[in-house]
Amino acid sequence: MTNVPDTMRAVVLTGHGDLDKLVYHEDWPTPQPGPGEALIKVHACGMNNTDVNTRSGWYSKAVTDATTGGAYDTVDEDDPTWGAAPLTFPRIQGADVAGTVVAVGTGADASLIGKRVLVDTWLRDWDDPMNLNKTGYYGSECDGGYADYTKVDQRNIHPIDCDLNHAELATFATSWSTAEQMLNRASVGEGDTVLITGASGGVGSALIQLANRRGAKTIAMASEAKHAGVQEAGPAAMLGRAPDDLKAALNNAIGSDTVTVVADVVGGDYYPILIDALARGGRYVCSGAIAGPMVELDLRTLYLRDLNFFGSTVLPPGVFADLVRYIERGEVKPMLAESYPLKEFHTGQQAFIDKTHVGNIVVTMD
């Protein structure tokens, strides 16, 4: 490992709780790549809701509140992560790595050294890669990228050739792969009309571009203060975050009071209104619940309208590689809101939690 220091800067999670559980170090041991692994010099790492929710313990069934980014009074120790399992501390979080391979372990491909790469965020049992029950999340079940260096199985590494800078590349991994799989799950294609909640966030703004790419018509929901920023993603129509009369707002915007797909990352009290806007045979797909996980559902709406509901979390192999190709072909563009140096991590994550931005927030190491 030529020119790789023995220690590095890192933001280390020491337990579940508030931002004070994230501790900045300048002398953390640099990881050593094992057999089949590569060592990556991290240039930038994007922030995402999974890291915040894991740190706070929001995934625990003991928590029924909206996501706040702060500590909760009660978090069950046996189910505080996305996979409903305990987390090992200390842990370096951060899944959205943009970096350069600087070394490889025994048996790994040495031709990766020097290549600019992104990291597929889903860890797999490579003897059974299609088994989604045998998966982990980068930065949760292993150390991630909020550090100068990180290591990962070479099969999670995707070289990329494009003109985007490091911070722009670090906006893609989690948000965009999540959005792409949501569209896959709901079989979104040409002729669909997709209503997108939380459209100013990383997943929401990605949903707009990726659904547009498939030939669907997109209707973005976001607070009016963010409409100008969200418009850069190219929705066909814009609505407020929670219109009093959603059907009337839809009819005014697109000439119909129903949509074929709702792509939701918000949940909360507005949930039944979203469901009521689905056309017969419509599809609802969810990959988040930032306004609250406990919702009200009239089962008559579900069965009398022949609706289809989908949850979406773990990506099957191939989805991330598709995303890399979209980026290289220039079919999608990054939505970089702000970047912060690693030492100002707490400020950056608080800005992420406050959600006054449009798109993604990134920490940089260079």
In short:
The chain is of the alpha/beta class. Helix content is 23%, strand content 26%.
Q: What is the string of helix and strand elements?
A: EEEHEEEEEEHHEHEHEHEHEHEHEHE
The CATH architecture term of the largest domain is Alpha-Beta Complex
**What name does the CATH topology of the largest domain carry?**
Quinone Oxidoreductase, Chain A, domain 1
Low-pLDDT sequence parts: none
Largest sheet: 7 strands, mixed
Number of helices: 10
Tally of structural domains? 2
Separation of termini? Answer: 19 Å
Q: Residue share in helices?
A: 10-25%
CATH superfamily of the largest domain: Medium-chain alcohol dehydrogenases, catalytic domain
Shape assignment: globular
Radius of gyration: 20 Å
What's the overall average pLDDT, rounded?
Answer: 96
Q: What would you call the structural class?
A: alpha/beta
DSSP strand count: 17
Sheet-strand content, in percent, reads 25-35%
- Highest CATH level, the class of the largest domain: Alpha Beta
Question: What topology emerges from the helices and strands here?
Answer:
Elements: E1 7-13, E2 22-29, E3 37-46, H1 49-56, E4 96-104, E5 116-119, E6 122-124, E7 135-137, E8 149-153, E9 157-159, H2 166-169, H3 173-185, E10 193-196, H4 202-213, E11 217-221, H5 227-231, E12 237-239, H6 246-254, E13 259-264, H7 271-276, E14 278-286, H8 299-304, E15 308-311, H9 319-328, E16 336-341, H10 345-354, E17 360-364
Parallel strand pairs: 10-11, 10-13, 11-12, 13-14, 14-15, 16-17
Antiparallel strand pairs: 1-2, 3-4, 3-8, 3-17, 4-5, 5-9, 6-7
Helix pairs in contact: 3-4
